[in-house]
Structure formats: structure tokens, C-alpha cells
Design brief:
12 helices; 3-hydroxy-3-methylglutaryl-coenzyme A Reductase, Chain A, domain 2; Alpha-Beta Plaits; single chain; alpha+beta; 356 residues
Length: 356
């Protein structure tokens, strides 16, 4: 049996790009920025695949545009009661005294701010899904600590509620559920691009119509018959895990992070292509971010700059969404052509083996 000493596991990492990205979170006041991104993966064909999407982004004036739709971290607490009436009454009191609960959080944390308390009654059980802003942290521990204080205050009101659990699974953390997409959890980012027909045909060896049809048939219909939960994409998890590992994120959060929707349209101007990632659980401070290689990566990404709280994390999430778009665009284009995907993988893996 191995001792408890900490050791490192090597994961091959490469900087890919640069990506051309626009949007307020990445290039405020500028037409665009060009930024390379670190990807840590054993699936080495991912590097040239994302690299192709990155190269294509540099052919477009604004590149990939990213839009941050919202941000929040959640923790759902569980109370038990005598019955549904008491649970419903407790939920009403919590809503009526929401300002008091906000003060509890603000007094106990420099960064956490309570923005919502969403109740759900199931029999004699009361679930309350608290939502917080957490600055540049992903906020796992921050919101649990805040929720502990909130439960203590609520129980002190003596309104017929008893402690059930600090986490009632209505959060929902590291599980594929619908609630995160509906009510929000993490950074919600959309990345999109408009590619002229000439670029699609020359660089992707396909057409806008073929791409739009494949997105509908494979991602939307295929995912639906598979029973996917608020998710219709080809391989978001590949890019996200590689980016998460390279920047010190909690890798288990790709479970919900990879739930997202790819959408495409064949327009007169060309191919409109977008990737919506509604729950990216990422941060630029917190556990793991102190490691030398992680700190260096975040610094090179421009996520260590002196900005307003939350801006570095929004920048990081936006770069992740843009990277996902690069990989998704490249893979789907390959799948419009019979045999291209497998032939390309075999060629790339053979080159990697020869160079090692």
C-alpha cells in the first residue's frame, strides 16, 4: 500500500492557437484579442483539431464572439418539517426575510453575495436552492460556508423547520441535471462565429448546409433519442477537461459543464455556428490555483490582471467557450465527410508516436 505522500501525475500539455476572440469579457473596447490556450490531455489529436478551429477564427474580422449571459454558484439546503403546510410556510418566511439572509452572507464573507433563494416543497421536505455571486472563485467552499450560516439563522427563527442536510442535491453539483440550465449555476457563456462560405469550403472541406444539417441530425435529434439532459453537442467534455486540468479547475465539474447546445444555421452570408455553455464551474482563485504551473498558465491567459472582482473568471470562462467552439467546429466538419475522422485520428496519433 502506498503511503499518503502527495505526488504528481503527468498529463501532456500544449498551448494551442492563438484564437481570435472578441467580446466584453476578453477584449473590452477592442475589435478582438488573439490568445493561445493550454490544453492538458492524453487525447493528443485534440490539439491539432482545436488548432484548426483557432486558425479559422483568425480569418474572421472579429473571430469568435463570446457573450457572458450570467453567473452564480448554488447550494441547496434541506429542511425537514411536520408536513407540507409547515414546509410551505417556512418557504414563505424565508422569502419574506430574504434581506436579513443577504446581510448574514455579506457579514460573513468578503466575496459571497446572496442573490436568490429558490424553494421547492416535496411532502414534508423543504429544499432551498441558494444562489450567490462569488467573485473570481468557482465558489464551492464559499457557498457551503455561507449556506451553513444561513441554515443556522433560519433554524434560530423556530418556524417549524429542522435540519435535514447542508446539501440536498437540488444544487446540483457534479451531476447531469436540468436545474442548472434552467435556474443557472456557474458562468453561462455563449460563443458564436459567422464563417463565409468560401472559408467553410476551403478550410473545413464542407458546406454550411452540410454543417447545419449535421448539427440538427446528430447533435439535436441524436442526443434527444439518447435521452440527453439539456445537452446537444458532439464533444464539449474533451475541450473542457483539457482546459480544466491546465488551469487548476475541479475536473469533476465537466459533468455539468459539458451539458450545452451546439446550434448552426446556413445563411446567405455563410455558416452561423454557436456553442452555448450554461454552467461552467470555473475560477481563477482558490484550490489548486497556487501551483506554479497553474499560476503561470492563468497569468499567460491574462487572468491574473488587476480587475474588478469576477472579471478574471469571466475572461477565463469566455476563453473556454471559444476553445470549445474551435474543437466542436473542427470535429463536426470532419464528420460531414465519410472516413475523414478516423483517418485523421490515425494520422495524428502515428505522428505523435514517431516524435516521442
Amino acid at each position: 500500500m502506498k503511503n499518503a505522500a502527495t505526488f504528481a501525475t503527468e498529463v501532456p500539455t500544449r498551448w494551442v492557437g492563438p484564437l481570435r476572440v472578441s467580446g466584453e469579457a476578453v477584449a473590452p473596447g477592442l475589435p478582438h484579442a488573439e490568445i493561445s490556450v493550454p490544453l492538458a490531455t492524453y487525447e493528443t489529436p485534440l490539439w491539432p483539431s482545436v488548432g484548426r478551429g483557432a486558425s479559422i477564427s483568425r480569418e474572421i474580422e472579429g473571430g469568435i464572439r463570446t457573450t457572458v449571459i450570467g453567473e452564480r454558484m448554488t447550494r441547496s439546503v434541506l429542511f425537514t418539517t411536520a408536513g407540507a403546510h409547515e414546509a410551505f410556510r417556512g418557504a414563505q418566511v424565508i422569502q419574506d426575510r430574504f434581506a436579513e439572509l443577504q446581510a448574514v452572507v455579506s457579514q460573513g464573507s468578503r466575496h459571497a453575495r446572496l442573490i436568490e433563494a429558490h424553494p421547492e416543497v416535496v411532502g414534508n421536505l423543504l429544499f432551498v436552492r441558494f444562489a450567490f455571486t462569488t467573485g473570481d472563485a468557482s465558489g464551492h467552499n464559499m457557498v457551503t460556508n455561507a449556506s451553513d450560516a444561513l441554515m443556522e439563522r433560519i433554524l434560530s427563527w423556530q418556524i417549524g423547520l429542522e435540519y435535514g442536510s447542508i446539501s440536498g442535491n437540488f444544487c446540483s453539483d457534479k451531476k447531469a441535471t436540468a436545474v442548472n440550465g434552467i435556474l443557472g449555476r456557474g458562468r453561462n457563456v455563449v460563443a458564436d462565429i459567422l464563417l463565409p462560405h468560401e472559408v467553410v469550403e476551403r478550410r473545413l472541406r464542407t458546406t454550411a448546409t452540410q454543417m447545419a444539417d449535421l448539427v440538427v441530425r446528430k447533435n439535436l435529434v441524436g442526443s434527444t433519442i439518447a435521452g440527453a439532459i439539456r445537452s446537444a453537442n458532439a464533444h464539449y467534455a474533451n475541450m473542457l477537461l483539457a482546459f480544466y486540468l491546465a488551469t487548476g479547475q475541479d475536473a469533476a465539474n465537466i459533468v455539468e459543464g459539458s451539458q450545452g447546445i451546439t446550434y448552426a444555421e446556413a445563411r446567405d452570408e455563410g455558416l452561423y455556428f454557436s456553442c452555448s455553455l450554461p454552467h461552467l464551474i470555473v475560477g481563477t482563485v482558490g484550490n489548486g490555483k497556487h501551483l506554479t504551473q497553474i499560476n503561470d498558465a492563468l497569468e499567460q491567459l491574462g487572468c491574473r490582471d488587476d480587475r474588478e472582482p469576477g472579471e478574471n473568471a469571466r475572461r477565463l470562462a469566455s476563453l473556454m467557450a471559444a476553445t470549445v467552439l474551435c474543437g466542436e467546429l473542427s470535429l463536426l466538419a470532419a464528420q460531414t465527410n465519410p472516413g475523414e475522422l478516423m483517418a485523421t485520428h490515425l494520422l495524428m496519433e502515428r505522428k505523435e508516436q514517431q516524435s516521442s
